[in-house]
Automatic annotation (TrEMBL):
Belongs to the class IV-like SAM-binding methyltransferase superfamily. RNA methyltransferase TrmH family. One of its GO terms (molecular function) is RNA methyltransferase activity. InterPro entries: Alpha/beta_knot_MTases (IPR029028), RNA_MeTrfase_TrmJ/LasT (IPR004384), SpoU_MeTrfase (IPR001537), tRNA_m1G_MTases_N (IPR029026). It comes from Marinomonas alcarazii. The lineage of its organism: Bacteria, Pseudomonadati, Pseudomonadota, Gammaproteobacteria, Oceanospirillales. GO terms for biological process: tRNA nucleoside ribose methylation. The keyword S-adenosyl-L-methionine applies. One of its GO terms (cellular component) is cytosol. This is tRNA(Leu) C34 or U34 (Ribose-2'-O)-methylase TrmL. Residues 8-144 form the tRNA/rRNA methyltransferase SpoU type domain. The keyword Ribonucleoprotein does not apply. SUPFAM superfamilies: alpha/beta knot (SSF75217).
Length: 176
């Protein structure tokens, strides 16, 4: 049986709303842990966009840096390092096959991933958009792509019942 393990690495994130939204996405897509470097996020006191309180069940870990040594120590053995950013020579996300165990590293909102990290990565991918998306949007798109290409994509009404808001009682009555 395959055992997925998914980590998200955020390089010195500056926006508490982006980190909160990343945590919400991590909960929705069953990420195992979120790692972040730098001190900018630590200056903030709450994650107002983590409305599902994913940070209470998914580790949000500050590591010294997302350098080569720290990356390897922070994830399980056999984990592939995947940098996600607008980097020349990267593979377009629609053509990427996700590894079973992955650490997806994203650059900061106002910068990019360090060249040493890119050089160490097993894969470098990008979302083929015109211009750059915000950090949380990029994480959501990548995690959705991973889900869409997996066996978990064939979910049905039971998942909907478990996942929907209590105020949502709408049903599809007619199908074409």
């Amino acid at each position: 049986m395959k055992k997925e393990f998914v980590s998200i690495g955020l390089t010195n994130p500056k926006s508490i709303s982006n980190v909160g939204s990343v945590m919400r996405a991590a909960g929705c897509y069953q990420v195992n842990q979120v790692l972040y470097s730098g001190q900018r996020y630590d200056r903030a006191s709450k994650m107002s966009t983590d409305t599902k309180k994913a940070s209470s069940s998914i580790p949000l870990i500050n590591i010294e840096s997302l350098g080569v040594t720290t990356m390897i120590e922070a994830v399980e053995e056999g984990t592939k390092i995947v940098c996600v950013d607008l980097i020349q020579g990267a593979t377009p996300l629609p053509h990427f096959i996700h590894p079973e165990k992955a650490l997806y590293i994203f650059g900061p909102e106002d910068g990019t991933i360090d060249q040493k990290v890119v050089d160490r990565a097993d894969y470098v991918v990008f979302v083929p958009t015109i211009g750059c998306m915000n950090l949380a949007a990029s994480v959501n798109v990548l995690l959705y792509d991973r889900l869409a290409k997996s066996d978990r994509a064939d979910a049905g009404d039971e998942l909907i019942r478990q996942s929907k808001d209590v105020n949502n009682n709408v049903k599809v009555r007619n199908s074409i």
